[in-house]
Amino acid sequence: MSDYDENYRQETILNVRGVLARHRLVEELVKKQNLVELQRLLEQLDTDALVQMLEIFSSEDREIIWDLIAENRREEILTAMPYDTRVELAADFKPKNRNMIVRVFDLHEGLLRQIPIETRADLQHAKPIWIDLVMPEDEHLNWAQDVFGVDLPNPNELTDLETSARFYVEDNGEVHLHSDFLLDRKDASRNVAVAFVLKKDTLFSVRSEELPAFRLQRLRARSESDYISNAKDLLLDLYAADVEYSANALEDIYTELEGVGRQVFKSYMTDEEAARILAAIAEEEDLNGRIRRNVLDTRRALSFLMRGKFLSEIQHEDVREILRDIESLDGHTSFLVNKINFQMDATVGFINVNQNKDIKRLTVISLVFMPLNVLAGIGGMSEFSMMTQGIPWQISYSCFGIAMAIVSWLTFHAVQFFERRKTRRLSMANQKIQQR
């Protein structure tokens, strides 16, 4: 690349940064104009420049940029992108057109290649290694079932299976597996049921929505030659991608809990702050539980494949490697459970401390007003009127009010004196214990 091209690229990136800066400051109408200008600038950049830009920009700017990139360029950009950024962008990906509902892939020169399928005739002439159906229509399911003679489940009924029906082999040799895959989004995290059917040399997958593990697997198999050689390799790599994605989600939990921990270990915390912290901890605990369930389900599926003797010796070694990764994740999830419980107990402890302080204040107030109540009761009796007979009521009740104020002041300071003396006594006792 010439110096002119490099300078032009850097200048364009600076222009993009400037437009983004204005985008955050102007009103909605001008924002739309900025987005048009921003999209024009993005169309002038090549793939390497877009990858560089997505790496150096903040998450907020990266999201704006990604929404403006043309759909036909995203696969190429993700392929050239580092794994962490790729996971972040793939996790927020949502299918927008019908062509993404049914995907058919074959192996071409050791790489996974997508075959365009528009009609049933296209599917009949294909020799796929993988048919991926995302919330397919009944017509698409019928195409696959009729052409390949395979029994595919409805994606809306995947969660209604009994435990014993999750992994089984049909009489015709079809291997059926129903597994959970993690979907970690900012708004909500959940486990999505996926049905796999392995028939001869073709893998069928049916699910209700797009998943990052599948998208990452497609990108990897397209860019790395001889990454997979048959449908069983593809199935194992999908499970490995899910375990890798779960590990990345666990790292995010560690990061979130570190931020929560800095708030928990403050010297003071209001009840409102404690409520927000408890909500954040509960959200991370829910995600951690979903990850544990997800890897447990993956372990069961891999164990079924090993027991069924469907795999080669090399594939058995791959499964053992995945199981070792799952075992390492188990230790992390268990540690996170203890960390979450500790932070939750500490937060609840702050709430209890605040409540105790409130109760103590109420106790001191009631103690201060207790002698005043006695004096007020005396002042309201007829005996007080008899004792102050002959004294103008303005003077008698003024003196009585002054006396009540003095008594309350003395009571308050007496309570503080005894409290300080108790604190000093405890402090001296602790010092003696430490000296021993």
Helix and strand arrangement:
Layout: H1 3-23, H2 28-43, H3 47-56, H4 59-68, H5 71-79, H6 83-91, E1 102-108, E2 111-115, H7 120-125, E3 130-134, H8 138-148, E4 167-169, E5 175-184, E6 189-199, E7 202-207, H9 212-223, H10 231-264, H11 271-307, H12 313-379, H13 382-387, H14 393-435
Parallel strand pairs: 3-7
Antiparallel strand pairs: 1-2, 1-3, 4-5, 5-6, 6-7
Helix pairs in contact: 1-2, 3-5, 5-9, 9-10, 10-11, 10-12, 11-12, 12-14
Describe this entry's structure for a reader.
It contains 14 helices and 7 strands. It has 436 residues and is an alpha+beta fold. It folds into 3 domains: 89 residues, no CATH class; 251 residues, Beta Polymerase, domain 2 (2-Layer Sandwich), CATH 3.30.460; 56 residues. The protein has a 7-stranded mixed sheet with strand order 2-1-3-7-6-5-4, with helices on both faces. The protein is elongated, with a radius of gyration of 34 Å.
Q: Brief overview, please?
A:
The chain is an alpha+beta fold and 436 residues long. It has 14 helices and 7 strands.
Mean pLDDT: 77
Assigned CATH architecture of the largest domain:
2-Layer Sandwich
Query: What is the CATH C-level name of the largest domain?
Result: Alpha Beta
* Total of DSSP H or I helical runs spanning 4+ residues: 14
Main β-sheet description: 7 strands, mixed
Shape: elongated
> How far do the termini sit from each other?
75 Å
Low-confidence stretches: 91-100
Roughly how much helix do the residues carry, as a percent range? Answer: 55-70%
* Total beta strand runs: 7
The CATH topology of the largest domain turns out to be Beta Polymerase, domain 2
Q: Indicate the proportion of strand residues.
A: 5-15%
Number of discrete domains? 3
> Rg from C-alpha positions?
34 Å
CATH superfamily of the largest domain: CorA soluble domain-like
> How do the helices and strands follow one another from N- to C-terminus?
HHHHHHEEHEHEEEEHHHHHH
Class of secondary structure makeup: alpha+beta
What is the strand arrangement across the widest sheet? 2-1-3-7-6-5-4
